[in-house]
Specification:
By secondary structure, this protein is of the alpha/beta class. Helix content is 46%, strand content 16%.
């Protein structure tokens, strides 16, 4: 199930979606049928319990789709629980400094890289008997860690953040970035484009994966062509409400005789 990081390191495009409202674990099968390769459980703005996240990850592993969990803040528990439940990785919001990035790695990686608490025969290793030394090394290698650049401070500190061992991806949060740049919602504004291009250049320089979320297909396609390979298109809310709204408008516009 941890193929997402390997594919990204091979330069492949990996396409996902953000979930913040849907809680039924069977959504994993639906998204896999659509062709999505991962989904992000948004526990920053969403209100998922530890149990619900664990159930959704278990279903996703059965469906053959990877799960990334966006945690609400950097704490040991927030980082440890999703990984022990079998998440392929984490997305961490509002990472502005290298020290914050180092703290994430300390909780997310086993020694000698970090100090993650080890509990084997859990969901993350399918409750199997394993060689502890080999498994911990492999888990460190496969666990995907993406940090979000959403502020001018993060853009300024991008090279220091990208230099932290264990950080795999710098992920642009375009809406929060636009707010913090003083151009709320203008995700194609020149100031925003310039900031995102700086992230892209830093990722190339440090051999990190560039990630981004966009709700507009054309904008997302633009950044995919700029080598953003960890690509998130929309959310459960946007896809459901936009498709439903368009259908209702079309049906209401039918003229009856």
């Amino acid at each position: 199930m941890y193929t997402i990081k390997q594919r990204l390191q091979n330069g492949e495009l990996v396409l996902g979606i953000m979930l913040s409202q849907v809680r039924n674990p069977n959504i994993a099968y639906m998204l896999a049928q659509c062709g999505f390769e991962f989904f992000i459980i948004d526990n920053e703005h969403g209100t998922y319990s530890v149990e619900t996240i664990s159930d959704m990850i278990a279903a996703a592993r059965g469906a053959g789709i990877s799960v990334i969990v966006r945690i609400p803040e950097i704490t040991r528990e927030n980082i440890l629980k999703p990984l022990d439940s079998g998440a392929a990785g984490l997305l961490i919001p509002m990472v502005n400094t290298a020290d914050q990035a180092k703290e994430i790695i300390r909780h997310a990686k086993y020694p000698p890289i970090g100090n993650r608490g080890a509990a084997l025969r859990r969901a993350h290793n399918l409750y199997a008997r394993v060689n502890a030394s080999e498994y911990l090394e492999q888990a460190n290698k496969n666990t995907f860690i993406a940090v979000q650049a959403e502020t001018p401070m993060a853009i300024e500190n991008r090279n220091e953040i990208a230099s932290v061992e264990g950080i795999d991806c710098i992920f642009v949060g375009p809406f929060d970035l636009s707010v913090n740049l003083g151009i709320p919602g203008q995700t194609n504004h020149p100031l925003e484009v310039e900031a995102i291009e700086k992230i892209a250049a830093t990722c190339r320089e440090h051999k990190k994966i560039a990630g981004i979320l966009m709700f507009d297909q054309e904008l997302l396609s633009y950044w995919i062509n700029k080598n953003f390979r960890f690509a998130v298109y929309g959310s459960d809310v946007s896809l459901l409400t936009d498709a439903a709204s368009n259908a209702v408008k079309k049906l209401k516009s039918i003229t009856t005789v």
